[in-house]
Amino acid sequence: MRFLIPGINFVGESSSLQILNKYGSSSGYKPNAQGISWGAKIYTDNYGFRTNPAQTNARVDDTALPSIVILGDSVTLGIGVQAKDTFANLISQNIQGYLFYNTSVTGYDLANYKDVIEKFIIPRSRELHIKKVLLFYTLNDISRLDPLEMLNFLGQNQGIEYKGMVTFTNKLREKYDFNRFLIPRSKLYLFLKKCFYDSSKAWFLFDYQEYNNNQSINNLKSTFSDIKIILDKADIELIVFIIPYEFQLRVTDKKYLLPQEIVARELNRINIKNYDLYPAVRKTLNGKNISAKELFLFNDHCHLSVKGHLVVAKEVLKILNMK
Fold first, then answer.
1. Which residue ranges form the domains of the chain, and what is each CATH number?
2. Antiparallel, parallel or unpaired: β 26-29 and 18-23
């Protein structure tokens, strides 16, 4: 199976990479460590940030240079692809005169970004001459929903066939945790799962519901407002980029763009610069006549493929070069 469909990635990340409570209540990666994340090697630098060990012109900390900090979750970390192919690395290699620090960690959300700002960016802002923060917002950053709630959500909202699947899998889970065992070990299992289950659509719908939740929206606005106040006091510019999901790019119904509309609206209200990448990515898909799934990992809702990272990097660089 790995030879027939080489694009299938194993799922999961080495637990040995992370340190609990590295930034307040938020975890982070160990300094100078290595591990596996969705089948790709992860190497970290002296700060515990993902780095590219093969890069001949690797970053040398120069106190005379200003720096840019990247905030994000597993999408911005670039799980499943080599460090050299991530949009974070591509951006850093194409903007001269700055040092880059990619603080992204798998599982992060808005609250974690705030912790990193308070516990790393602000304390180190003078030492590292931090001038900008690029925050890459993924649609699931709005909340900390328990992923285990997803099966119940599907059973209630996606039709009788899913209800049967939920009942069946829950019974199996009581005796065997086959999903956890097979996901990091069998590409055949991942392929068969794709054949019978559209997880990209399911995850989008699961996250979409939070944008109809006033409490979640108020929390988003409040956390972003706190982040802006903290960074403004340190004279650090904040720019937010909103990354679309695969399902949004696959369909044409504009109602599914509600999350981007809400995030942009709330950020505009508090004067945070933000850019929705959906229109540009959609234009690229149409112009090159490629499918949305080609920009993402196999059967994945939000994690980018090598091609997806390149598309995002090009669009972000266009925006930053216009500033």
1. 15-144+208-322 (3.40.50.1110)
2. antiparallel
DSSP strand pairing (99-102 vs 67-71): parallel
Intra-chain end-to-end CA distance of the chain, in Å:
46
Q: What are residue 98's phi and psi, to 5 degrees?
A: -135, 150
Distance between CA atoms of residues 77 and 87, nearest Å: 9
**Angstrom distance (rounded) from CA 233 to CA 292:** 40
SS3 per-residue string spanning 163-214? HHHHHHHHHHHHHCCHHHHHCCCCHHHHHHHHHHCCHHHHHHHHHHHHHHCH
Vertex 294: Cα angle to 242 and 198 (nearest 5): 85
Q: Which residue has the tokens 């690395």?
A: 89
pLDDT 10s digits, 54-109 = 874 445 555 689 999 999 999 999 999 999 999 999 999 999 999 999 999 999 99
Specify the amino acid at residue 60: V
Which residue matches tokens 């794709």?
A: 194
Alpha-carbon separation of residue 210 from 19, 47, 239, 312 (angstroms):
29, 33, 23, 25
